[in-house]
Amino acid sequence: MRKLGSILIIIGVVFIGVFVYQYYDHWKAQDESLTEAQESVDKGKNKVKLTPDDFKVNANEAFAILEIPKLGKSLPVVEGTDPDSLKKGVGHLSESVLPGQGEQIVFSGHRDTVFREFGKIEIGDQYIVNTPYGSYTYEIRDTEIVSANDTTVIREMGEEVLVVTTCYPFRYIGDAPDRFITYAYPVGDK
């Protein structure tokens, strides 16, 4: 019986160690991406005025900062929604446009890392996206919960809309069955 107890303790310590390492690894990657994104935004401010159409971004590059005032968060936005990109921060779906281009912009992130407190988000809250070519403010006007397999939220909308997605339910352990979607519309730009 003592051997079983010792084995269970060792297994528990290993699981805790793996969790701590993964959490630290995500935190470190996001911190490095936030620095990279801030440098990109600052570099854009010091250059000749860029337009959204002039700006080009490479895969896995941190290029913008998503501010969520309600949560007091400033998060790096990374090009791509593959696992490597999402490890570094909020992913920008490459097939969608960039802020200021007048169509659907899609950002995604993990509920247990960048969007840890996303359950507090409400209609009327704002997102601010700082890019090398300007800052864009969006107000959440609608939310919905869809199946994890539902890709109909990715579509042409005929107007600029920032769509932010994460897994749902927020406290679910494992691969969540649904997605929480917010639809935010421009309230002005600088």
Structural overview:
By secondary structure, the protein is α+β, with helices and mostly antiparallel strands. The protein has a single domain (2-189), classed as Beta Barrel (Sortase, Chain: A), CATH 2.40.260.10. It is built from 2 helices and 8 strands; from the N terminus they run H-E-E-H-E-E-E-E-E-E. It has helices at 2-45, 83-88, and strands spanning 62-68, 73-79, 90-92, 104-108, 126-131, 134-147, 161-168, 178-189. It is globular, with a radius of gyration of 19 Å. The mean pLDDT is 88. Keywords: Hydrolase, Membrane, Transmembrane, Transmembrane helix. Pfam families: Sortase. GO terms for molecular function: hydrolase activity.
In short:
This is Class D sortase. This protein has 190 residues and is an alpha+beta fold. It is 26% helix and 33% strand.
Strand arrangement across the biggest beta sheet: 1-2-3-4-7-8-6-5
CATH topology assignment: Sortase, Chain: A
Number of helices: 2
Mean pLDDT: 88
Shape: globular
String of helices and strands: HEEHEEEEEE
Percent of residues in helices comes to: 25-40%
Task: Compute the separation of the termini in Å.
Answer: 68 Å
Active site: 110, 167
Organism: Siminovitchia terrae
Transmembrane segments: 7-24
Keywords: Hydrolase, Membrane, Transmembrane, Transmembrane helix
Write the layout of secondary structure elements.
Elements: H1 2-45, E1 62-68, E2 73-79, H2 83-88, E3 90-92, E4 104-108, E5 126-131, E6 134-147, E7 161-168, E8 178-189
Parallel strand pairs: 2-3, 4-7
Antiparallel strand pairs: 1-2, 1-5, 3-4, 5-6, 6-8, 7-8
